[in-house]
Amino acid sequence: MFTTRWRWDASIALALPRFRGGKKVPPALARMNAEDLLASVFPDQVACGENITGDIVVPDHPLVRQTVRDCLEEAMDVEGFERLLHALIENRIRIAARDLTEPSPLALEVLSARPYAYLDDAPLEERRTQAVMSRRWMDPESAADIGKLDPEAIARVRSEAWPEAASADELHDALCWLTFLTEEEVQREAAWPALVQDLITQRRVTRIGHLLIAAERVPLLQAVFPEAVFDSDVIVPGSSAKEWARDEAIREIVRGRLEGLGPTNAGAISMSLGVDLADVDAGLLALEAEGSAMRGNFEPDLGIPVQWCDRRLLARVHRYTVKRLRAEIEPVQARDFLRFLFDWQRVTPTARMQGPDAVPAVLGQLEGFDTPASAWETEVLPARIAEYDPAWLDEQCLAGRIVWTRLATRAGDTERGAAPVRSTPIALLARRNVRLWSSFVERPETPQLTPKAQEVAAFIQTHGASFFDEIVEGAKLLPTQIEEALAELVALGIVNSDSFGGLRALLVPADRRRPTARDARRKRRIAIFGMQDAGRWALVRKGVEPAAGEDIEHVCRTLLRRWGVVFWKLLEREADWLPPWRQMLMCFRRLEARGEIRGGRFVAGFSGEQFALPDAVGLLRDARRKPNDGEFLSLSAADPLNLVGIMTPGARLPSLTGNRVLYKDGVPVAVYAGGEVSFLEVLDEKEQWQARNALLRRQVPGVLADLA
User: Tens digits of per-residue pLDDT, 443-495?
Assistant: First the structure.
């Protein structure tokens, strides 16, 4: 606080140069100059605390006085704090202590402090303060998961603690610190039975019942089983010949077993040793008293209420658990995020949807996204829906659920005549949200229409929604002229039709819509390209009121459904007429405060705040752990997942339907643009051949081949 205020006061007092050589002093140099000035005026402030003896002497300097005043009176309220202390001393303020179910407002400020408010560098997600804050919203089952150990970490520690003896000497050492081995444990290791026979022959190991015991541990077992008879004689070293009390012997045996078993329970030790459970419990309590063993419910899924573990091994389990949690919290790389998006947007072969019900689900995720008209049914939808049928989209449009239109036009579009419909950016929206999305688009000047387009637009405005035959009869124009006029109006976002078939008909030349003998033999469906099946043509009703807060929230939720994780850089793939990032940022923060979404750093290498759906966070972690399969994924450049130059280094690939990009394990390896294939990664000759085939392959339904 003092350093920041000092730089501010020194700058406005002109004690530090703001410009040097006609250029502004860089912030880093300005900070260094401020520290040098502070060291000369107030050396105790920047000195090491170990080198200062006595109280810190505040110099009588105008800059120092001003900085101290700003810290105590502007940043803090020292006078109010003094009044509070005096009131407490004079008993004018009564203090009452209460045990509450949640932190008080003052304590909550401490608990919810930013990560940089703490001295250590542990991430925010690992702090126990987060557990305190969230327990009031958790059910008992979720609250019990706080601090839960990772089962994989427990299994790893168990495997590391258990001996791996490859020779007789190593097995003898393991028997010394494990105190005993059961016959079942020996049989689990293929090489151990032979090693045991060698040790028995050398009189270094003996048996007592089903237990194998090293010679050094014979006195321990004799103290526990004084009447037991050993199968063979052994030579007990003189250093190990000690008289043990029974309870002390059981304690040492239990200690050795805990060092090799990891988390276990008293019943398992009692059964393997063959003594009463009460004796084992007494040994465990003695180890707990000396601090070498700890109890807890380490594996709640097993249904064992109390387990025991060696303190050293338990610390290792905690360390592995924290390491895994940190790895999950760490942001993923851009390539892993792209692999996540392939599954999130269902473009991978295993994630594709099927059936007519998949159309509204996919369009709900892509709502508001502009892409060339010719790409929707040839690239975007077939990439996400297996065996896509154009009739499915027509059904949604004719039922009034989906509307297609161009939302935004540019100044150059209004000055030209007929526009190419194939490259016109078209968005598919829910009908109820057309006014909402169009409220973000600035209203352009009145477009300069051709006489034919003016005639058709005037007829539709006068008579309302009309069929194609009605427009031909009422406008007194030839059908081909009506089609040209409708194409111009569609390209400018003025009209649309009830069915997607209207747009589809404009994408195919009239001579290719007529059925041929070849089509008849193949029973090809030509009806979907006919203007008569387009339904009614009507003016697009767009919103005229400015966007409200609810409209921005709808856009934010749509972006979250589309990308799973949203941040500033990713919006470069979206339309430029969307709300500014600063407005959406406030909405994202509100959603995070409500607990509906999560904020944090999910993708590495991109600055700014990032927000994600809770469901997307888990899938994002799975994408990082997913092994590379080396499969190629070819997408059109008009697809939303054309993130070349946005999520990856290099130049961007123009979003044209004919251009294509080829991904391999989340990395773009080749692009097809301008009729040429360019490789972005070094591939061998065989991989280049496979990449070319995968890049140029098109999954276009046969009935839509004329649109490709």
Answer: 766 677 888 988 998 999 898 888 888 888 888 888 888 888 888 888 888 88
Question: Is the pTM above the cut of 0.85?
Answer: no
Buried b (16+ CB within 10 A) or exposed e, 618-648: eebbebbeeeeeeebbbbbbbbbbbbbebbb
Q: Would you state the structure tokens that stand for residue 598, as one six-digit string?
A: 């999560």
The pLDDT value recorded for residue 521 is 47
**Dihedral angle computed from the Cα positions of residues 608, 611, 616 and 620, in that order, rounded to the nearest 10 degrees:** 20
Query: Does residue 662 have a pLDDT over 90?
Result: yes
DSSP codes joined into one string, 584-598? HHHHHHHHHHTTSSE
Q: What CATH number is associated with residue 159?
A: 1.10.10.10
Inter-residue contact 490 to 457 (CB < 8 Å): no
Asked if residue 416 has pLDDT above 50, the reply is no
Q: How far apart are CA 701 and CA 345, in angstroms?
A: 20
Residue 671's alpha-carbon distances to 53, 275, 371, 633, in angstroms, are 69, 72, 19, 12
43-69 pLDDT, tens digit each: 888 888 778 888 888 899 999 999 999
Please tell me whether residues 557 and 594 are part of one structural domain: yes
Per-residue pLDDT, averaged over 258-270, amounts to: 90
Residue 635, beta-bridge partner list:
661
**In the prediction, which pLDDT does 251 show?**
92
φ and ψ at 575, to 5 degrees?
-65, 150
**395 and 267 inside one domain:** no
Distance separating alpha carbons of residues 161 and 140, to the nearest angstrom: 33
- 371 and 497: one domain? yes
With a pLDDT cut of 90, the percent of the chain lying above it is 28
For residues 287 and 348, membership in a common domain is answered with: no
Q: What residues contact residue 176 under an 8 Å CB cut-off, 6+ apart?
A: 214, 216, 217
Instruction: Judge if 287 and 385 occupy the same domain.
Output: no
- Phi first, then psi, for residue 457 (nearest 5°) are -65, -40
Q: Which amino acid is at 365?
A: Q
449/520 same-domain check? yes
Which pLDDT belongs to residue 449? 83
Alpha-carbon distances of 184 from 179, 180, 181, 230, rounded to whole Å: 15, 12, 8, 19
Q: Does a structural domain hold residue 639?
A: no
d(CA 350, CA 549): 38
Comparing C-alpha atoms, which of 575, 596, 576, 600 is closest to residue 587? 596
Looking at the structure of the chain, the number of domains it has is 3
